Amino acid sequence: MTNNPAAFPVETVRSLFPALHRTPPFIFFDNAAGAQIPQNVLAAVTHHLLECNVQRGGRYAKSQEVDATIGRSRQSIADLLNAYDPSEVALGMNGTSFIRLVSDAMGQTLASATKSS
User: For a tag on the chain, would you pick the N or C end, based on fewer CB atoms within 10 A?
Assistant: First the structure.
């Protein structure tokens, strides 16, 4: 395998991220918590906020549609990850929030184990 940087379409990839085309131009040196998103993700989030931002678990059509969409998404992710069951897939705001939840749970578990010893 040759190491040919010209083979990677840098400009094509950059063109997918609207924030990289603002004036004046600047460089992002953020971590994942501040990562930029491509236009198709921005469009999907906008669509959700305008068309699908409803209470989940409701008995009305839009709520049921959103629940079904999330179920299909969870199944697709489970398939991609080869998960045993889609219920093993957790969806949330971002990785930082999940890491905090896991660390809180671990801390509580360890605290409980220490008290019962």
Answer: N
